[in-house]
Inverse folding.
C-alpha cells in the first residue's frame, strides 16, 4: 500500500540516492523553490486517471490515498511518486494558475497525456495513444525513453529526452528534427477525430502559423477526462494520409537521396523534371538527361526560399583519371568512360531582393546557409514521402477531391446568392470576390468578355508570408483555382490549378501533391459550411409571408 507524506522540495531532492537520474534534476530545481512543498507518495501507484489541474481535490484518485484527517495546503506545487505510476486513462493538466509539477522516480504509463506544466520521469514514459506537450510554461524531462502513438509538441513546450524515442505520428514544432508536420499542418486533420478539430468559427487560414489553431484543445482535454478516444485507428490514419517512410535512407543531403528524389513518382514518366512548393519554399527536380537544346543536365534539386536563399544540389559524374591507352581502348569498344558520382552543393543569398553570386556551401564555412539548406531539403523529402505514399495507396486524396468537388457541386456552390450578388465582374477587383476572414473567396460566372466566352471558375487565395523587396502589391498571396469546362461534348470537366504567388502563372494541381489537396478540401469545406450557415440564418430571419 503506498504511503503518503508532505515534504519540501529540498527534502525530496536530498532523499534521492546520489546515483539516481533525477538527483541532478531535483538539485537544479532547488534554490529559490527549496521551501515549496511536495505531496510524496512512496510505492507503485495505479490510478484510473490523473488531473494535474487539481490532483488532490476531494474525490480525486490521489486524494483517496491521503490518510483521513491529513491537512493539505490548497494548491500543491509538486507531486512526487517514489516508484512507478500506471494511469489507466488520461493524464491531463492545465489550470489558470498553472498545472502541478509531477515527478515520477521510475516509469510512467498512461493511455493519453496532455502536459501543460512540468513532468519529470526518472524511467520510461509510455503513452498508448496521444502525448501532447503544449506551452512555454510546460516541460517534459524523460531519462529512460519515450513512446507514443501520436505525439505533439507545440507553442514553445520544452523537451529534455534521453533514451530511445518512438512516436508513430510526430508533429513537432519545438525541436529542429524532421517530423510529419514541419512543413504542412494538414496531416493533423487525419490524426484527430472531428470533435477535436477546430470548427468553422476558426480563421480560414488556421494552420499557416502552427498546429494548434487547427485543433480544439479544450474539447480534446475534456474528451480525455471523460475517457473518450480522440484519435482514429492506425488503419484510418494510414488510409487518409499514407507515407512512404522508407523512400529515403535518412535525412542527409547525399548522392543516394538526390537520385531517389529525382526518380520518385513526383516526376512523371518521360518528363525528366517536376516542381512543387510549400510555404515560402519552392523546388524543382531534374533527372539526368539531354534537354531540347542538346545540353546535358545533371540529376539535381533546386530549392528557393523566396528572395532569401537559392540552393543547388546536384550529382555530378566525374571521370576517373586513367592513362591515354586505357581511354582509347574504352572509346574504341564504345564503352562509357568510368566515372564517380560526386555531390555538388551551392548557394546564393539575397540582399534587398537581389541574388548574390553562387558559391559552395558547407556546414563549417557557411553555417547559416547550411541550416537553411538542410531545412528546405527536409521539406522536400517530406513533400516527396507524402507524394510517394499517395501513389502507392492509389491517390486517396485525389480520389476524394474528384468525388466531393464535382462539376455539379461547384456549379451549385458558385450559384449561391453570395456569389451571384457579389461576384458580378471577374475583371474588377471590387466585384469578383470578398474577404472571408483572412481568406479571399471569388467566383466567375459564365460570361462573355471582350468577345470571348469564359466558363465558370472558383478561387481561394490567402496571404502566404510577407512581401519581399521588389514584390508587387499583394504578391505574397497563394491561390487555388478551379475552372469548369462546359463548352464541350460530354460531361463538364474541372481543372484545378495553383500558384505560390500572384506574380506567377498557375500550374495544374498534381494528384501527388498531398498537402495542397488536403488543404484545398479543408478550405472549401469551411467556406461552404459558412455560406450555408449564413444562408440558413438569412432565411430564418425573413418575416413570414
Amino acid at each position: 500500500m503506498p504511503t503518503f507524506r508532505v515534504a519540501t522540495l529540498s527534502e525530496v531532492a536530498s532523499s534521492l540516492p546520489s546515483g539516481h537520474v533525477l538527483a541532478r534534476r531535483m538539485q537544479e530545481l532547488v534554490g529559490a523553490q527549496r521551501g515549496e512543498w511536495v505531496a510524496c507518495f512512496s510505492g507503485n501507484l495505479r490510478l484510473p486517471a490523473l488531473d494535474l489541474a487539481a490532483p488532490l481535490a476531494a474525490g480525486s484518485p490521489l486524494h483517496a490515498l491521503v490518510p483521513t484527517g491529513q491537512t493539505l495546503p490548497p494548491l500543491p506545487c509538486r507531486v512526487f511518486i517514489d516508484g512507478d505510476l500506471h494511469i489507466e486513462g488520461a493524464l491531463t493538466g492545465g489550470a489558470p494558475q498553472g498545472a502541478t509539477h509531477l515527478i515520477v522516480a521510475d516509469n510512467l504509463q498512461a493511455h493519453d497525456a496532455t502536459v501543460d506544466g512540468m513532468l519529470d520521469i526518472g524511467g520510461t514514459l509510455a503513452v498508448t495513444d496521444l502525448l501532447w506537450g503544449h506551452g512555454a510554461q510546460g516541460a517534459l524531462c524523460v531519462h529512460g525513453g519515450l513512446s507514443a502513438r501520436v505525439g505533439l509538441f507545440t507553442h514553445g513546450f520544452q523537451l529534455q529526452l534521453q533514451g530511445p524515442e518512438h512516436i508513430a505520428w510526430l508533429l513537432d514544432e519545438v525541436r529542429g528534427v524532421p517530423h510529419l508536420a514541419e512543413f504542412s499542418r494538414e496531416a493533423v486533420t487525419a490524426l484527430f477525430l472531428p470533435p477535436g478539430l477546430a470548427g468553422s468559427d476558426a480563421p480560414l487560414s488556421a494552420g499557416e502559423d502552427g498546429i494548434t489553431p487547427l485543433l480544439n484543445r479544450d474539447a480534446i482535454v475534456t474528451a480525455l477526462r471523460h475517457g473518450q478516444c480522440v484519435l482514429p485507428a492506425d488503419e484510418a490514419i494510414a488510409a487518409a494520409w499514407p507515407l512512404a517512410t522508407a523512400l529515403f535512407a535518412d535525412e542527409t543531403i547525399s548522392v543516394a537521396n538526390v537520385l531517389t528524389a529525382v526518380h520518385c513518382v513526383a516526376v512523371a514518366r518521360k518528363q525528366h523534371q517536376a516542381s512543387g512548393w510549400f510555404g515560402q519554399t519552392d523546388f524543382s527536380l531534374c533527372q539526368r538527361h539531354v534537354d531540347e537544346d542538346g545540353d546535358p543536365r545533371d540529376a539535381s534539386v533546386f530549392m528557393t526560399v523566396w528572395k532569401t536563399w537559392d540552393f543547388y544540389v546536384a550529382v555530378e559524374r566525374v571521370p576517373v583519371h586513367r592513362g591515354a591507352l586505357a581511354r582509347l581502348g574504352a572509346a574504341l569498344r564504345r564503352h562509357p568512360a568510368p566515372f564517380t558520382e560526386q555531390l555538388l552543393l551551392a548557394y546564393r543569398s539575397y540582399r534587398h531582393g537581389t541574388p548574390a553570386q553562387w558559391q559552395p556551401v558547407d556546414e563549417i564555412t557557411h553555417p547559416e546557409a547550411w541550416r537553411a539548406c538542410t531545412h528546405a531539403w527536409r521539406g522536400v523529402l517530406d513533400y516527396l514521402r507524402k507524394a510517394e505514399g499517395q501513389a502507392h495507396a492509389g491517390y486517396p486524396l485525389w480520389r476524394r477531391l474528384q468525388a466531393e468537388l464535382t462539376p455539379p457541386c461547384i456549379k451549385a456552390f458558385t450559384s449561391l446568392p453570395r456569389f451571384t450578388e457579389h461576384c458580378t465582374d471577374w475583371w474588377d477587383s471590387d466585384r469578383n470576390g470578398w474577404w472571408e476572414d483572412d481568406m479571399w473567396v471569388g467566383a466567375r460566372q459564365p460570361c462573355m468578355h471582350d468577345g470571348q466566352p469564359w466558363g465558370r471558375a472558383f478561387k481561394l487565395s490567402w496571404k502566404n508570408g510577407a512581401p519581399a523587396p521588389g514584390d508587387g502589391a499583394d504578391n505574397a498571396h497563394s491561390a487555388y483555382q478551379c475552372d469548369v469546362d462546359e463548352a464541350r461534348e460530354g460531361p463538364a470537366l474541372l481543372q484545378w490549378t495553383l500558384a505560390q504567388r500572384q506574380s506567377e502563372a498557375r500550374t495544374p494541381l498534381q494528384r501527388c501533391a498531398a498537402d495542397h489537396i488536403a488543404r484545398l478540401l479543408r478550405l472549401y469545406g469551411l467556406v461552404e459550411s459558412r455560406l450555408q450557415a449564413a444562408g440558413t440564418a438569412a432565411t430564418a430571419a425573413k418575416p413570414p409571408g
